[in-house]
Design a protein that fits this description.
Blueprint (H helix, E strand, L loop, with lengths): L4 E2 L2 E2 L6 H59 L24 E8 L6 E6 L6 E8 L4 E10 L2 E4 L9 E4 L3 E8 L8 E7 L8 E8 L1
Antiparallel strand pairs: 1-2, 3-11, 4-10, 5-9, 5-11, 6-7, 6-8, 6-10
């Protein structure tokens, strides 16, 4: 005998209505399980999407900070108000050899054989540029002010006086000289090989390195 179907369920072979209800309940449980599985899958996808959105949000926040920093950096100007910093966030910080410690012109009077130029304290090495615009060779020595108005010649670790010579009518940069000056300050002493002519000049520029 063919099995008749009512509402998707067989009508023959049931012992009683209870069997029919059990079969119907079993079918519903199967459908519920399938629906729950699909919901679990959907929840997993939602959680994955939320994680991706969180990662994107973090990257956007980082990018915003970098853009803000870059904007600030590009707006900075140097002391002359001319040159702008145009590099991006990765800026290589360099030590600039632009700190001029002193610039002095000695005017010889036709009498004196020596003169000196004081050098401000510095933690860096120094370069000494001499424009010896006169006809006498100069011997250049170094002195430190140990206590007020008390000067001591500078010798190296071997006991040799630190000095150099600057030819007549020359324009030369000497150095770099380390660890000078110290104590209260220092000075360099210019001693001519013979008395320079009256009103002749020697210019000295001292610069940090």
């Amino acid at each position: 005998m063919p099995i008749q179907m009512v509402d998707g369920y067989p009508t023959i072979g049931y012992n009683n209505d209870t069997d029919k209800l059990k079969i119907e309940a079993s079918g519903l449980e199967t459908k519920v399980d399938s629906t729950n599985t699909k919901l679990d899958t959907a929840n997993t996808k939602i959680e994955t999407s939320n994680t991706n959105l969180s990662s994107i949000s973090t990257k956007l926040d980082t990018l915003s900070v970098l853009n803000t920093l870059n904007t600030l950096l590009t707006s900075i100007k140097d002391t002359n108000g001319i040159k702008k910093i145009t590099d991006n966030v990765n800026i290589n910080v360099k030590t600039l050899n632009q700190e001029l410690l002193s610039e002095t012109t000695v005017i010889w009077d036709g009498v004196k054989l020596t003169d000196n130029i004081e050098v401000p304290l510095t933690n860096n090495s120094i370069l000494i540029t001499i424009n010896n615009n006169q006809a006498q060779l100069l011997v250049v020595t170094f002195e430190n002010e140990i206590i007020t108005d008390t000067w001591s010649k500078w010798y190296d670790g071997t006991g040799t006086e630190v000095k150099f010579t600057c030819p007549a009518n020359s324009y030369i940069t000497f150095g770099a000289f380390q660890c000078f000056p110290k104590f209260l300050g220092g000075r360099i002493v210019l001693t001519a090989s013979s008395i320079p002519a009256n009103l002749s000049q020697t210019s000295v520029q001292i610069q940090e390195v």
